[in-house]
Write a structure and sequence with these properties.
about 160 residues, 3 helices, Nuclear Transport Factor 2, Chain: A, alpha+beta
Length: about 160
Amino acid sequence: MRRISALVTIAFLAGLGIGLLVQSAVVTASRQTDTHAADLAAIEKLHKADEEATLTQDPTALTDLWSDDCVKVDVPGGPVVGKKAMRELYEKNRTEHPDFQVLKYTTDIKEVQIVDEWAIEVGYTEAAFKMSANADPVTFPRTKVMRVLKRQSDGSWKFALVGMK
């Protein structure tokens, strides 16, 4: 009888231990799902801010989209490195082309992969702009884009590396 009681006790404790492990795994998976959903929402917020800043061409709003150690590789004359250089680029463009106007700018991100503090996204952009009030519109239909995003300490995301083809 004692042997059966001991076996029942061991089986009960083993079942309890397995149940706690399963519960822990479910809670961890749930937290990861919640974190992933929050990251995707924050990335979507960055996308909206990108579209708004691009349409208005506000140098401050455009600069705020970037991480401090950013790199933009698709710039004529070579990559722009760092947030300060990015701000200078936007301000120079605004000064040299005061009538520059973005007529259309949209993104269609097809895939986002998030790993720790980084996200890689690929998709397409479409844009149309005028260099001056009297200029004909220039269009960029469905341009491939690859962007690396960096999670900030406040949970927001910013562009760290951008390239288009």
